[in-house]
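Encode chain A's predicted structure.
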Amino acid sequence: LLFQEQEREQKSKNEAFLDAIKQFVQKNLKEDLSLTYIAQQLHYNPSYISRLFKQLSGRNLSEYIIEEKMAYAKLSLETGDDTVAAIALAVGFESPQYFSVVFKKQTGMTPGEYRHRFR
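Encoded structure for chain A:
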């Protein structure tokens, strides 16, 4: 019973850790979400965050960050009237051109093509 309780407690801590990281990313998409920045803001060691996030979620933190940024960008393109440049800034890209490159790599379409297709 003691081991089961410890296992439940550890699982709860792990879920809380993942939730904290995910919420931080979602609330700070506009920021430079480097591993170092996240670690500083949440008071964790960067390598600990990286290793544990990968272990618990099955993907790298950087992959998750890009996925979240692209999900927000897709929603904005589908439902809003903001320019691609404004959306790029809203998800933390200083350059609309670089945002377009990353977006196309993730979706197979430019932001303009995506907007046209899903409107």
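The chain is about 75% helix and 0% strand.
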